[in-house]
Amino acid sequence: MENRIQRIKEALQGAHYKLTPQREVTVRVLLENERDHLSAEDVFLKVKDKYPEIGLATVYRTLELLSELKILDKINFGDGVSRYDLRKEGAKHFHHHLVCMECGAVEEIEEDLLEDVEKIVEKDYNFKVTDHRLTFHGICGDCQSKKE
């Protein structure tokens, strides 16, 4: 975790920002809960446990800054709630998600499933793809088993 925090600190410094104590505690919460796809409110509540004097606006500003710097991705799974997902280090693109419409479980797909599609879009439409997001909505295996 310390290596990732150091790299995030370097990314902030490269954009002329500091890793303040408030930003650091926010980053630590995101790293500790990386698989949970936390909302801003979820992040705030977890940060407040560790840093009681922090305000919601500070957490929001930190999340937005980290999103602008492409350290975080802001995602929405169709439920009206923005969630935050740390971008995988060295990843060329955002990873994909499977969202269960029954229980709300979210599973990540690390492999890039759209490489061939990107090539077609770039060639046939003369469009330079810089990123993409793919979310599948359906019913997870556990929920399917419960129905049987």
Description:
There is one protein chain. With 148 residues, the chain is α+β, with helices and mostly antiparallel strands. It has 2 domains: 2-86, Arc Repressor Mutant, subunit A, CATH 1.10.10; 96-147, Dna Ligase, domain 1, CATH 3.30.1490.190. 45% of the residues lie in helices and 17% in strands. The protein is built from 6 helices and 6 strands, in the order H-H-E-H-H-E-E-E-E-H-E-H. Strand 2 (72-76) and strand 3 (82-86) form a beta hairpin. The termini are far apart.
Quick take:
This protein is an alpha+beta fold and 148 residues long.
Average residue-wise pLDDT:
90
Counted up, domains total 2
The CATH superfamily of the largest domain is identified as Winged helix-like DNA-binding domain superfamily/Winged helix DNA-binding domain
Counting DSSP H or I runs of 4 or more residues, the number of helices is 6
Annotated CATH topology of the largest domain: Arc Repressor Mutant, subunit A
